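Give me the fold.
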Amino acid sequence: MIEIAQFEEVTQIRMSRVIDGVPIYWVSAYLVDGLLIDTGCDYTAVELALYLGEKRLDMVVNTHFHEDHIGCNHLIKDRFNVDIYAHPESIPLIGKEAFLYPYQEMVWGYPVPTEVNPIPEVIRTEHFRYDVIETPGHSMGHVTLLEREKGWCFSGDIFSRETLKFIRPEEDMGKTIQSMKKLLDFKTERLVLFTSVGKIIEDGRAALEGCIDYLEDLSAKVNNLKDSGRTIEEIIQDIFGGEHNFAQITNGQYTTENLVRSVLEL
């Protein structure tokens, strides 16, 4: 299932697998001036390719290698003969078969391994220019695209919400904060976040600052509790009221414990 929305010159393409008539998790790609940013998951690849067949498509960027961002790469390469770009650390992972947990296979499906190219420092389209910014934290090999004159920031998964409750074990909140601060350092008149979770946030600076403040405050609380002798399990109970139910749904991947252990290191 795909849904289309427009924000200025940017087309948002929201995609989700549908089970029993219900979309189970939305992920967004963005099309602007012939540039496609991310390609969704395998379950929506055919629908996305059909939609793109009626549009101008000159190039594609994968913000990172996760399966919900590269799922239509292979069809795009086969049907449109355009270049796909990604961070060098993501390239070998996009080019080989992914390891997925059952929840990932159910929600997004296995992407077909695809050869992609190293992303340049700057992406240029007919009308726009994008700085390519390394923004690790959510994953290795993660990039953000920033169109300074417009203030458009295609942020991938470096920001999803201001108050995180759970993360995957490989996510690094210290690096995530550094990446968000890097985006804030760019002196643009405005900063609109185009996130992969489907939110277009017009006051992106406030959202990033709010997330940074939340994580730094959470780190202080967690460290104070640990210094007072509380265990990790007790800290999770004290602050969050217990482990999030996503821990069970995701085979122990998305957990509050991962978040607590990561902010301990800030």
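The longest helix spans residues 204-227.
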